[in-house]
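Appendix B. Chain record.
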Amino acid sequence: MNEHKEPLDRDSQKPHDPVNSNQPSSSWYSRFFGWVKPHKRKIAAAFGMISIVIIGLGTYFAMHLDEAPLPHGYRVMGIDAGGLQPAEVMVRMNEHIATFEGMTVQFVPDRTDQRLEPLTEQTFTLKELGFTFGNEEAVNQLQQWEEGNIAHKWKLGRELAEESLDIETSFHVDQMTAAVRKSFGTTIDRKPKNAQAQYITPFKVKYEQEVDGWELDEDKLEQSLIQLVTKLKSHPDVRQPMTVRMPLVTIPADVTVKTLKTRKPDALLGEYTTVIANRGEGHAHNVRASAKALHGVVVSPNHQIRYSDIVKKTEEQYGLMIAPVIENGRMVDGIGGGICQTSTTMYNAGLLAGMGVVERNSHSLPVPYVPLGRDATYSTGGPDLVMSNETSGDIVWTTQVEGDRLKVQVYGQQLPGITYDVITEQRTSPVLKISNQITDKIAPEQSRIIVDSYRIKKRNGVVVYKERLPQSTYKLHQEENVEEKERY
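C-alpha cells predicted for this chain:
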C-alpha cells in the first residue's frame, strides 16, 4: 500500500544544529545593537557632555578646596580660627601681639624714701622692657595650609582640628635692665656714703651720719615681670598701667658713726721738733705753708699718708716761694726750698708714734736740722715720704710753728706700755758737725757717709723689737751729680 507523503520544505529538510547555551539570547541582544546602530552619534555626544561636566566639577572642587578655610576646632592664641583663611588669622594674631606688647608697666618703690619718687613718674610698655610675643609654630602651620595641595590640606586638616596653640613669650633681660637704668640712673643705683669724722681737735670730733646705698636686684625684677606677664595671658583685660615693685638691694656704708667712735684717738703717740733754718723769707714761708697743709690730716687704719699729697695741697692753698734747694750736690735757689724740713719733722714724729715706713729717702747732702740718718727728702716726681697707719684707730696729725721752731705731733690710740726710740750708727769717720752753712768743700777727705738707723720698740721700758729703717747715704763731693732737685 502506498503511503502519501507531504513534500518537505527545503529548509525543513536541512538537519538542525544543536542549541549553543553560551550565545546570548537573540531577542534582547539583537534589539540593543539594533537600537545603537542608528543612534551612534547621539550616544557619542552624550558621553562628551558627561565628560565635560565631570572635568568641570573636578576643576571647580579643586579650586575651592585650594581656598578651603581652616578646619573647625583649630585655635591659635585664643582665636577661634575654624572657618577662617590663614591671612585673616595672621591679622588677628598681629593685633593680639600689638595689644600685649603695648601694655604698660609702672614701677613703685619697695621702700619709703623720697629719693625713689621718680620711679612713679614714668611708664614702660612690655615691648620696651624686652618682651616679644607670638607663636612660630602657628605661623608655620598657617603657611603650610595656604601653600599645600588638596591632599596635604586633607591630611593637615585632621591634625589642626584638634590643635590649640597659646601665645608664646620671649624676654630679653639685658634690654629690660638697660631700659630701667637709662631712665632712672642713680635713683635705683645709689652708692652708700660713709660716715665722716671732722676732728676739731684730736680729742674733739664732729660726726656726719652715714647713708646706706642700694642697687637694682636684676634677678628679682626679672622674676616679677615674668610672673606679671604669665598672669596677663589669662587675664589680658587688666587695668593699665600695671604696677610692679622695683626690687632694690641695700648696700650698707662701710664706715658708720659707731665705727668712727671706736677709732677716736686717746693719746699723743709721738712728737718731734726742729729748728727752722735761717735761709730767708722764702724758706720760712714754705715751711709754714707745708706745716699748715699737714695740720689736721687724718689717716684711717690700714691707710697711708703720702707727703706728695701734702705738697700738692700746699701749692694749691698757699703757694710755694723760691728758697735754697740742693741740685747736683750744690745749694741753689729753687721753688719750694724748705718743705723737706716739714717732711723730715713729720718722719721723726711718725717714727716715735709707731707708724709704718713705706718709703723714705735721705738727702744727698746732710741737712742742719736733724742728725744724720733722721732726715726725709722729697722731690717732685722723685723721692717721696710714705708712712702707714698700722693701728686700729685714726691717726691725727697736728703742727705748730712758734718762732723758729716747727713741732709735729701724732695722736692716736695708745697701746699700754708701748714706746719707741730711734738710734743711728754712722759707718764712716770722723763724725761731721753740721751747721747752718754748707760749703762746696764740706768734708773734702770723704766722698760719702753711710748711716744705718733703727727703731727700738719697748714695752714698759723693756726692748721687745729692733726694726731696721731705710739706710741713709750722703754724698759730700760737689762733682757727684744728683739728678733730682731736693727741696732741702
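Further analysis of this model is presented in Appendix C.
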